[in-house]
Amino acid sequence: MTMAQEVAVTVGRLEELDDPGCREFRIGDGEWPFRGFIVRKADAVHAYQNYCAHAGHPLNFKPDSFLTKDQSLIICSSHGALFEIESGLCIAGPCPGKTLRRVRAEVIDGEVVVYGPDSA
User: Fold this and answer.
1) Which CDD domains is this protein grouped with (predicted)?
2) DSSP-based three-state secondary structure for 68
3) Cα(107)–Cα(15) distance, integer angstroms
4) Alpha-carbon span 6 to 54, nearest angstrom
5) Measured between alpha carbons, how far is 36 from 11 in angstroms, rounded to an integer?
6) Which CATH architecture is the domain 6-117 placed in?
7) Is the pLDDT of residue 3 over 70?
8) Are 14 and 113 a contacting pair, CB within 8 Å?
9) Angle 32-44-17 (CA atoms, 0-180°, nearest 5)?
């Protein structure tokens, strides 16, 4: 059994994202790529796997749509679970106390880079 290699993927320039704002990304190809999203808040980026801690499906229905109307929290479109942007902690809804799976992310020379498993 081989372990998946971690790969770096550039999601885009920080300045291209609204503040706060979100963008989806995928790592790898095929039927089961790793899917995630980033949230910009000021000059920080937070990245998570796009996987509901309650129901196990993607958090969003619409592309790049992960935040509440006031853009203060991450929301699961299916069941309304609310997660803190900075920690991924569920603070309301059907899964309080659970967290989203964090993905390593950083800003390098203005580019947002995420790291995750290569599905190839």
Assistant:
1) Rieske
2) coil
3) 11
4) 26
5) 10
6) 3-layer Sandwich (2.102)
7) no
8) no
9) 65
Tens-place pLDDT, residues 64-96: 999 999 999 999 999 899 999 999 999 999 999
pLDDT value for 120: 52
Sheet holding 73-75, edge to edge: 73-75, 82-84, 90-92
The token duo for 120 is 């190839």
Helices (H), the chain: none
Contacts 24+ apart (CB under 8 A), 95-102: 95/52, 95/53, 95/54, 98/53, 98/54, 99/53, 100/48, 100/49, 100/51, 100/53, 100/74, 101/48, 101/49, 101/51, 102/46, 102/47, 102/48
Q: Which residues are CB-contacts of 97 (< 8 A; sequence separation ≥ 6)? A: 89, 90
107: tokens are 């800003």
The answer on pLDDT for 30 being more than 80 is no
Give residue for tokens 């991924």. 88
